[in-house]
Amino acid sequence: MASQEIEALASALARLPGLGPRSARRAVLWLIKRRESALPQLLVALEHVRAGLVECSVCGNVDTSNPCGICADPRRDARALCVVEDVADLWALDRARLFTGRYHVLGGRLSALEGVRPEDLTIGRLLERVQAGGIDEVVLAMNATLEGQTTAHYIAERLEDLPVRVTQLAHGLPVGGELDYMDEGTLAQALRARRPV
Ligand SMILES: [Zn+2]
User: Fold this and answer.
1) Topology of 4-52 in CATH?
2) Residue of 194 and 141 predicted with greater confidence
């Protein structure tokens, strides 16, 4: 029987994506064994994340400044906008270092099953950004899942009447593939071979 403290930590960790109760217990054990070496470092990192991070009011990225480093960087091409489902996808694409424009984070994807509607995402804000002008190309970089593609089609339709070129990642991406899990070469390839919607 584990102590209350250990149980509390295990159940907090078990809520992390990709970590079930079993892995959470293993992680707790790992941390207990290293509570003098690894734990202080982890605590500092967690506190920095808690205290220092904000959501970018322009693109939805998470960073230490608002606007985020990408939105504020004058070397980035303001005429190209890449639309992603989540911040993790933005980070994955930016790691591939091929896209030099800016981003827009939707905050999820449309899903009839989970009851996610267009107004639950930042699609309205995306349309406002495009309507404000100065953007030539919108790259739809949704995941190659059914819901990702439904979302891409919906956005492409909403952008139809605006003076902007709409492209989509080439799906050398495996069907069902999520951007965050792609290696950088595959992502770069999909971006390079993007095509009009
Ligand atoms: Zn930003």
Assistant:
1) Helicase, Ruva Protein; domain 3 (1.10.8)
2) 141
Distance 130 CA to ligand 1 centre (A): 15
Q: Rounded to an integer, what distance in angstroms lies between the CA atom of residue 161 and that of residue 10? A: 51
Ligand 1 center to 73 CA (angstroms): 10
Instruction: State the pairing for strand pair 77-84/137-140.
Output: parallel
CB 142 within 8 A of CB 166: no
| Gap from CA of 140 to ligand 1 centroid (Å) | 17
Closest CA to 169 of 96, 108, 116: 96
75-168: in CATH 3.40.1360.10: yes
Q: How far is the CA of 77 from the centre of ligand 1 (A)?
A: 13
* Listed residue (68, 47, 50) closest to 59, CA to CA: 68
What is the pTM (predicted TM-score) of this model? 0.79
Q: Are 165 and 123 in contact (CB under 8 A)?
A: no
Check whether 171 has a pLDDT greater than 90: no
